[in-house]
Structures are given as structure tokens and as C-alpha cells.
Amino acid sequence: MDHAGDAYRTDLMTITRFVLNEQSRHPESRGDFTILLSHIVLGCKFVCSCVNKAGLAKLIGLAGETNVQGEEQKKLDVLSNEVFVKALVSSGRTSILVSEEDEEATFVESAKRGKYCVVFDPLDGSSNIDCGVSIGTIFGIYMIKHANDPTLEDVLQPGKNMLAAGYCMYGSSCTLVLSTGCGVNGFTLDPSLGEFILTHPDIKIPKKGKIYSVNEGNAKNWDGPTAKYVEKCKFPKDGSSSKSLRYIGSMVADVHRTLLYGGVFLYPADKKSPSGKLRVLYEVFPMSFLMEQAGGQAFTGKQRALDLIPTKIHERSPIFLGSYDDVEEIKALYAAEEDKK
């Protein structure tokens, strides 16, 4: 990319312009989806600003409460959740909201209802705030089935039914990665303009990568296929080079790197967490949606991740996602294990 040339570009593709261009391809569109996305973008800008001055504003530290997952809430978690709930309700385009921080789903009052459900993790990786590691917001959007009487069934849909998914990473730069079902595009916030500018058009994950990303501290509790795959990454028997281990511990940052450079991100089930640790609706589904749209795969150890049908809003699942060929290797190991039984 010609950064010197970019400094003088005047024809910038902002995220608003990009989404409006997409909207123009659908003559029947009334702009509801565009309005909803603009409110999500506003929420991301607000949280980015808060993250950048968290230390100064004394937002770092615990709010003194515990969320539904039993994790201690950071002050910034609580603030981010409020920001997104208010932004989404005020858009007038949502009926149901599911947040990692709230035990129950939020049903929007009928006067402000729209035709979309939004599932989101307002501040993923927040345990890393104190040490300055990249954190982020993850979101997914569904269309409701019951226009006049929204129910939990409207969000307990398989991930393949999502209309759009994305994440916003707050790190050395603020990057928003989005898919509306027609590929994946990345936008970077220009602080001087206050606008997200298209910087990573049509992201495609490499077919095979050189990096694997997993918490090896859990290795003693892994199942056979996961242990075999990681062993294969470190000690390949076909003469190829070993894969490099890169693990940040913030899902947004780890998946972002995997998306751009290739490889595989693993959060398997283990003896301590037989159902996995990551939440299906607002972590597994949006990231799996993005991976598939970028040409990769997402697998649970039993099936395609986007085919899962959740039964609870905070349900968990194992996940293996990343480059197509790397996930194929994992699928083959699980198939071989199944054949033994």
C-alpha cells in the first residue's frame, strides 16, 4: 500500500459510503440495515475513545460486579455494554439484543422495534485491558422471524442464517472487519476524520498458514485429535517446516491475525470444559461467518460451526477456525478418531 500517496487521497471509501453502495444493489432496500450498521459503528467509535483513555479516566479496574459467565466485570465492560445497548435500541431497527454481559436477552419496547436481532460481546478480551493488549467488540445480526411477536427463537438460529457479522479491534489502530455475506472487508478509523476508511478490501485468508494459535496451558486436558494436531504443528513428519505458535489470549486479536496471515485458531473442548469455553452466539458464530466468507473454514470437532443450532443464549462450543487446508487436517483427525469407536 502506498501510504505516502494515501496521505493525499481525496476519494476515500468510508464505511458509510461502502454500506450505501451495497444497499444500492438491492432496490427493494429501505435503508434499515444501513441505519443499524451506522449505530453499531457509532458504538465502536465511542468504545474506542473510552479504551484509549481508560487509564486516564480511571476506567481500568473492577466494577465490583460479576457477569452471567462468573467473570469479574471491568468498569469498561459495563460501560461498553451500556453504549451498545443504547445505540442499538435508539436505532429503532432492533427487536432483541443478546449481550455477553446480560443474563437475559433484551426485548426492545414495541414503539422502538425493528426487524433485526443483534448478538454481541461488547468488550472481548477485557482481562487484557490493564496490560494494553488489543481487545475488541464482536457482533452478529439476524433477521427476526416473528415480526409482531419476537421471541428467543429469533436469536436461537444457526449461524448460517446470520445476515452480517463483524468485529472491531481496539489496538495500535482501531480496525473494523465486516461481512454482509458478500466477502470480508476491513476498515481503519482515521482519528483526524472520525471515519472508518476501507483499508483491507476483499480479505481472503491464505489456503494454508504457518501459524497455530491455542492456549497450550490446557494441553494436559485436550482430547486425542487436538493433541495430535498440535504435535503435528510442532513436529511435522512430512519434512515441512514447523508452524509458529502465536497466542495473544484475546479472541479478536488472535482471529484478526489468523484472517490476515493464515493458519488456525483453536479453542477446543477439554476435560475441564467439555463444551468448550467460547460462546456460540456472539463469539463462535460471527468469527466463523467471517472465516467462511474469507475462504476459510470453521469446525466444532463434530460439525460445521455455522450449522450448530443453539438452545440457550449463552451456550458454549469448541471451535477450530482458519485456513481451509489447516482445518481440513483437523477434521481428518476427528474423523479418524470417530472411525476407531
From TrEMBL:
Entry EC no(s): 3.1.3.11
GO cellular component: cytoplasm
Keyword Hydrolase found: yes
Keyword Hydrolase set for record: yes
Protein name per its UniProtKB record: Fructose-1,6-bisphosphatase, cytosolic
Localization, UniProt: Cytoplasm
Main location: cytoplasm
One annotated GO biological process: photosynthesis
Entry coiled-coil feature ranges: none
GO MF: fructose 1,6-bisphosphate 1-phosphatase activity; metal ion binding
Similarity comment text for this entry: Belongs to the FBPase class 1 family.
Short name of one Pfam family: FBPase_C
